[in-house]
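Thread: NAD(P)/FAD-dependent oxidoreductase, structure

OP (GT): Posting the sequence first so everyone is looking at the same thing. Length is 501 residues per the record. Can we get the structure tokens written out before standup tomorrow? I want them in the notebook alongside the other entries.
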Amino acid sequence: MDSTAPQHFDVLIVGAGLSGIGTAWHLQRYCPERTFALVEMRAAIGGTWDLFRYPGIRSDSDMYTLGYSFEPWTDERSIADGATILAYLNRVADKYAIRPHIRFGHKVVSADFDRATARWTVTLETAAGRQVMTCRWLHMGTGYYDYDEAHLPRFAGQEEFAGAFFHAQFWPEDLQYRGKRVVVIGSGATAMTLVPELAKRGAAHVTLLQRSPTYVMSLPAVDKVANALRRALGPKLVYRVIRARSVLFQQLFFQLARRRPLLVRKMIRKGVMKALPPDYEVETHFNPAYDPWDQRLCLVPDADLFTAIRSGRAEMVTDEIERFTPQGIRLKSGRDLPADIVVAATGLKVKLLADVAFSIDGRAVRLNGKMTYKGMMFADVPNLSYSFGYTNASWTLKADLTSFYLCRLLNRLAATGQTTAVAKPDAEVKPVAFLDFSSGYVQRAKDVLPTQGDRAPWKLHQNYALDLAALKYGRLEDGAMRFSGAAGREPPSPALAGGMS
């Protein structure tokens, strides 16, 4: 055996965050005869939950759906902080012996698929220099945003500001904010999390400065019903029941928002008015110009944002920035906001599959603009899949289904002795925008994202029930997925046998 030959695996998973660890579990469970490895560019697992370190970072959906289908969430809080979520991911990685499969400090820079051998050749940057691995199948669990750069608009006069100014994605470890005046620019989940947390931790005053309002809803951080049932019936059964309940609620609420937007707008507004003083300017600060779920809703646990506003420790300001001054920010209305610290929570920068340079037989393949199959593969690109969660529900719901479907594909190839799976669209399928979302980060990424089709299996349903039917129980031979190639015949995994394809 050539000792200089690159390491080879049946499946190479890129990314050791929520998606990658979940995919590894599925491979162990449903494709036990497959060899696999995970490559992670950072020095720790966790992805998002290890990267972001700003105060109060937490889930923006309940952990009964953000948690894995196979590992019950047992913490008392259903809306959990980042440290608890990271501990959960580490526990899963160790409990199921996934950590030994991870190569840390390995950043994928390019991947070339050779049709003749049905293999990907993957080039990685490491501390020891460039390395090469090969695999039959490449799965990208890299998320969808840039870890190295955030979206940070340039503001007039920002270099004149005498205080600290930075993006929340790169929170300074040694930042002292107790007793300081803090302005947080933004209206998304990060801003809604930071403001009450900084107020609670001793900032002198915290201002949330938004250009336009966002829909904000309060949910209990602790699901008392779930906790009581878990103590009575045990974690596994209750987890399945509460997870199903949460999925049903998410889907029903989303469909109601789409079909009866005025009703849902009134429901959300009523909740905000109940949580704030009678004379509060709800129309100014909590009345978005768009319909509910045209952008992702912001959830605040136990109404903490509203509590901070009522206490006077925090305030909402809806205005536009004219310029920074040495003492803070001057608004277009003429008001000056004094600040010692300004935090930009202005959004993320979308990056498609970690900007890996893909090619087939040495010819570059551009994935942006390419049509996606079942929200997990690309048209005409063989043996490549990716995880992309829901925009209207928890990420992991779709990631789990994607991993299960990947295992079905791998076992179909093994059962027939074939080597290649590739999706081919019909001429009748028309491309449409990948995400039907008006959020700024989506609009800024139109040239980065792929497309979807106007019909199944190319359409993104953003619906768990439909995806469950298609990915877990639908036919593999659907007219779009093509299998080819020949190799030594391998036995199928018994875990997915019995009519699953």
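GT: Both are above now. Quick notes for whoever picks this up: The longest strand covers residues 129-140. The two ends are 37 Å apart (CA to CA).
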